[in-house]
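EI: anyone free to look at a 234-residue chain?
SC: sure, send it
EI:
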Amino acid sequence: MLLEIRDLVVKYGEISALKGVSLQVENGQLITLIGANGAGKTTLLKAISGLLKPESGQILYEGQNLCGMSPDKIVRAGIAHCPEGRKVFPRQTIQENLRAGAFIQGKKGVKEDIEKYFAWFPRLGERRHQKAGSLSGGEQQMLVICRALMSRPKLLLLDEPSMGLAPLVMAEVFRIIKEVHKQGTTILLIEQNAKQALKTADRGYILEVGSVVAADSAENLLNSPDVQNSYLGA
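SC: here you go
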């Protein structure tokens, strides 16, 4: 098991954002978390990456409990987090953003990795010396995914990668997500477009107000009348 969450509780003050969440991510899977705003999805990813300290429970990554570990050590362990909101370094160039993502690699293989991702995203390669803050929303999303991949993670956490993007750009982002998964990276995905997420994923978990209320194969969730009515706009 690559990642196992056991009875995780995370609070903001007196408010419990996660109420004993448990889930599993096997090596090589693409898992999606769906649920309404405020369900606790982003909180879970922040806890995994060390940005929030759990009240109780365990976050086991390759058998090691990550609770209390600093974010930089979690990155070095093999987990990369793409937060929602396309948080690029706006005054740095595309190439400088990518180099920042490779801080744990030293200089070994960084140039080759950059060129690989420029081949995946030709628009970024064409603009490699352009300031990241001047890119379109879709280009910034592509950049933050590539920047996270520069650390060569085993597990990639993606938070709302298609938020605010036009349909054609969203399709391109999902194409890349599928390619990243195909290349062997395990992915834990939060996505507002629940239908597209379930079409892409192997398995899904549904969160409601801090608790897992359903877990099944993505295909079964996609075909469930209850899920369709509640989350897929059916």
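EI: The mean pLDDT is 93.
SC: 👍
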